[in-house]
Amino acid sequence: MIFIDTHTHLYLNAFDEDFNQIIKNAIDKGVKYMLLPNIDSNSINKMLEICNDYPNNCFPMLGLHPTSVKSNFIEELKKLKKYLSNNTFYAIGEIGIDLYWDKTFIKEQVEAMMFQIFWAREYELPIVIHSRNSFNEVFKILNDSKFPGMRGVFHCFSGSVDQARKVIDELGFKLGIGGVVTFKNSGLDKVVKEIALENIVLETDSPFLAPMPFRGKRNESAYTIIIAEKIAAIKNISIEEVAETTTKTALELFKFENKS
User: Does residue 63 form part of some domain?
Assistant: First the structure.
C-alpha cells in the first residue's frame, strides 16, 4: 500500500531534532509521498532544500498563507513569484482566507488569494485552499474566479455535508481529510460517510492536528495511516481500498510521477 500525505509542514522547527527519523517513519508506514505547502518568503528556502534532499518523496507547493498576509503582501507575493520561474512546484498553496485569528487584513487576504489564483491559471497548477471561518467567502472567490482546468483541494476540510457537495459538484475540488476525522463529535465522520471516496485526499497538516490517540501532541506524516484507518472504518471498506483510491486521486490532482 502507498499513501500520500498531501499536506505537511516538514520544514517547521518542530521537526528540527529528528527530521530524518520523521521521514523514515513515514516511508516505513507506506507514506511514500509528502507534499509541502509554503507559508511565506521565510519558509520557502528550507522547504525547497528538503524537497531537493528527498526528491523521490517530498514535493513543494508555493503560496502565501492567509495569516501571513499583512500590509506588505504585494512585496511578499513578488518575492514568491520569482521562484515560480526557476523551480518546479506541484500546487499553489496554501492560500485562502482566515477569519479565525484576525480580521484586520481581510481585504488584503482577498487580493492576495486572487493574485495566486491567477498564478494557478498561468502555470496550470492545482490550488490548495485554507478556509478557516471563511467557507462562504472562499467559495465565492473561487466561483467568481473559475477558469478552464481549475482544480484543487480544500485543505483540512471541516464543513458540512452540503458544503462538501458544493466544493465537489460546483468547483470540482477535492476534500483534504486529516486527523480531525478521528476526533469525537467533530462531525467530519458524517461528511466522509456521505461523499464518494474518490473525492478525498489524505493529509496530516503536521506538526498540527494530530489524530487520536495523539491529539494535542506533535503530528507527523506517519500518522496518515491512522486517518486512512478511520476512513475505512467509517465507510466499512478495507484500508487497501482507501490507500489505492486516495493515492490515485492525489497523483491525478498534483500530477507528480509515481516513483514506486
Answer: yes
Tell me, yes or no, whether 87 lies in a domain.
yes
- Residue 259 domain-assigned (yes or no): no
**Rounded Cα distance, 253 and 28, in Å:** 24
Q: Is 85 helix (H, G, I), strand (E, B) or coil?
A: helix
Backbone angles phi, psi at 77, to 5 degrees: -65, -40
**Residue given cell 481585504 in the structure block:** 107
Residue 130: inside a domain, yes or no? yes
- What is the rounded (10 degree) CA torsion for 149, 155, 160, 164? 20
Q: What is the CATH number of the domain that holds 182?
A: 3.20.20.140
Backbone phi and psi for residue 117, each to the nearest 5 degrees, phi listed first: -65, -35
pLDDT by residue for the chain (260 residues), tens only, comes to: 999 999 999 999 999 999 999 999 999 999 999 999 999 999 999 999 999 999 999 999 999 999 999 999 999 999 999 999 899 999 999 999 999 988 999 999 999 999 999 999 999 999 999 999 999 999 999 999 999 999 999 999 999 999 999 999 999 999 999 999 999 999 999 999 999 999 999 999 999 999 999 999 999 999 999 999 999 999 999 999 999 999 999 999 999 875 54
Nearest alpha carbon to residue 2 among 62, 61, 60, 56: 56
User: How many CB atoms lie under 10 A from the CB of residue 147?
Assistant: 9
Q: How many domains does the chain have?
A: 1
